[in-house]
Write a structure and sequence with these properties.
The chain folds into 2 domains: about 5-125, Alpha-Beta Plaits, CATH 3.30.70.100; about 140-175. Helix content is about 40%, strand content about 15%. A hairpin with a 2-residue loop joins strand 1 and strand 2 (about 10-20). It has helices at about 25-35, 65, 85-95, 95-105, 115-125, 140-160, 165-175, and strands at about 5-10, 10-20, 50-55, 75-80. Strands 1-2-4-3 form a 4-stranded antiparallel beta sheet, with helices on one face. The longest helix is centred in the last third of the chain and has 20 residues, at about 140-160. The protein is of the alpha+beta class and about 180 residues long. Helix 3 (about 85-95) crosses helix 5.
Length: about 180
């Protein structure tokens, strides 16, 4: 993977800014507010460490700072994920097509239907280069992070269960558990 400002270790950071169709920002905000949280549909993106949609209501009125052609509400999609851009866009545009289409379809210039290869091209077109991003463990994959979290939980549970054990029982229980 080539080194860009969008990469850190084996991770890639995607930032997409898409102008929202005039009059659709409130409806889009309501749609995003009602997306299930536990589990979030974004959790089905197996490559993603983090992903979110955010409505930015107004950039302001200073074109010298922004250099945008149009002011007003924008949809921000931000994600950090394992590997390169194309496999992630494939997951996003295919795996989340049902949830994503009503979201992306409220953006100006989005293809109809807002899914698959045409949506991938739209997202690449609206991608903003990431200036800097941080990842605590840039070499760790989603799978490795999940394994570490599972081990952490097992260790905590074991420590709680073994509070009253003598040394011999503790050693046997530890060897059996781990």
């Amino acid at each position: 993977m080539p080194l860009t400002s969008n990469t850190l270790g084996q991770m890639y950071a995607l930032t997409v800014l898409a102008p929202i169709v005039p009059g659709e920002a409130d409806a889009l905000q309501q749609l995003l507010a009602h997306i299930p949280r536990d589990p979030s549909p974004l959790s089905r993106l197996g490559l993603a460490h983090f992903a979110r949609w955010v409505v930015i209501p107004d950039f302001g009125q200073d074109p010298s700072r922004l250099r945008a052609e149009r002011f007003g509400p924008y949809l921000l999609f931000s994600a950090t994920f394992d590997g390169g851009l194309e496999p992630f866009l494939e997951q996003l545009c295919v795996t989340l097509a049902e949830e994503g289409e009503p979201i992306w379809s409220r953006c100006l210039g989005v293809p109809t239907p807002a899914r698959g290869a045409p949506l991938k091209a739209y997202l690449r077109h609206n991608q903003v280069q990431t200036g800097l991003f941080f990842a605590a463990y840039p070499q760790a994959t989603v799978e490795e992070v999940n394994e570490a979290l599972t081990l952490r939980k097992r260790t905590i549970d074991f420590a709680i269960r073994s509070q009253e054990m003598d040394a011999t029982a503790l050693q046997q229980a530890f060897l059996q558990e781990f």
